[in-house]
Amino acid sequence: MRSLILSDIHGNLEALEAVLASARVDEGRYDAVWNLGDVVGYGGSPNEVTSIIRERATAHVRGNHDKVCCGNESGLGFNPIARQAAQWTNQSLTEENRAWLRHLPQGPVVIEPFSSVIVHGSPLHEDTYIVNMRDAWAPLQQMEQQMTFFGHTHIQCGFAWKNGAWTEFRPRYATSADAEQWTLDLAENTRYLLNPGSVGQPRDGDWRAAYAVLDSEANTVIYHRIPYDLARAQGRILMAELPERLAARLRDGR
Ligand code: ZN
Question: Which CATH architecture has domain 2-252?
C-alpha cells in the first residue's frame, strides 16, 4: 500500500499543484493521502488549497496555523507577520472552508493498516517542535507503531531508533533546481519519526516543494523535492497585500 504524505502547505496553491502532478495522484497510485496540518496561513490561496485537501486527503490532523486561521485559537502567540497573515486568511476563507478547518482532529491520529501515526508537531503535544534527537528521543521511546510522521518545523528529515542506537538524517540531493528523490529503506525492529518537509514554505534552505511517499510493500519512504511556479505564488502574496517577507522567504527556503 502506498500513502502520499503532505505537510505545511500554508496556502501555497502552486506548490501543492506541482506536488500533486509530480506524485501523479490522479492515476490511482495511492491508497491514502495524509495531511499533517497547516493547510493555511502565510500563503495567498487559502480557499483553493483547503478545497483540494478536503477532496484529496484521507486522514488529517490540525496545525497551529489552522487553529488560529479558523478562529479556534487567538493569534497572541504568533509573531506580528504570522498574526497578520492569519487575520487575512480568516477573512478570506469561505464559511464552509472555515467550518471544515474548525473540525480538523487533534493529533496523534493512528492509521493501523500502515503501522503509522500522524501528528502536526510531536506525539507528545501537537504544537511542540521536533528539531533534534533530544526532542525526538521521548516520542521514540513511547511509540507503539513503527512510524510517526510529523511536520511543523518545515524541515525534511528523520530520526530512527533501535535498542538504544539512533540515527538522524536529512535527504541528500544533487541540485536545487530539478525534481529529485531520496529513498529511505525501512529496517526491521526500528522506530521512525519522519518529517516529509513542507509543501508550501520550506525552511531547510531548499526552495522546492517537499513531500514523501510511504510504500508499505517495498518498505520504503521516498522523500521528494519538486520545483514549482515560485513567481506566481509570490505574486498572490503581494497582491493580497500580505507582508512582503512572506513572498521573499519562499525564494530562499527560509
Ligand atoms: Zn507550519
Answer: 4-Layer Sandwich (3.60)
